[in-house]
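Researcher: Re-running this chain for the archive, since the previous output was lost when a drive failed. Same request as before.
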Amino acid sequence: MMQACTRVKAKRNRLDLRKQARHLENEIDAKLVAFSKLGINAGVRHVSPDEVPLLDEEQVFENMASELETLLSKLFSINERMSQLQPNGAAMLHTMQRHKEILKDYKLEFNKIRNNFTARKDREDLLGSVRKEIDNYKSASGLNRREMYLKENQHIHNSDRLINDQISIAMETRDHLMTQRQAFKRIRTRFNDISNRFPAVNSLLQRINLRKRRDSVILGLVIGVCTFLMLLYAFH
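Model: Regenerated structure tokens:
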């Protein structure tokens, strides 16, 4: 009688534990599906400043991961309690082994999803930091380029001003030379007028020039003869 009661109680315990295990397995399976979708969306989604920040989705992901860890721990505890009971035949032994395999698969899936999410998050953080550095570099390069353009514009402006000054000086010099040319032209015209008005003066100037040339020739001959005589005396 006592043995029969014990067997009935053990059977009820096994049924109750199996029922709890199946309930936890169904709950874990549903949460793993949602957990997988959340991990994918949180890992690859790029949000703008006007949208919900990625940190909220990460917080939801961590909360769900904590819930799954709790459920997996409960399922493991139930499996251990079933293992402590004496199996009632090969079917019961197979059922207990099946529950352990399901728990193992759930743990592997859970760790895979969490590791993928962590890897994606690290990659996103790295890309975000690289993108930020690139933006900072572009901003600094834009400022340097703007300063370079301003300096180049200033140099062009200074060169243009110097060229205008040189052109102004050249135009003033041209005007001055043209004025001198007109003055010399007027003086030449005046001398021509004077020569035409006073032909005697012109004739006198011509005779003076002829006498100057004749005196120069005579002076040259005298100097040449004297030099020849001196050389002749010196060699004899």
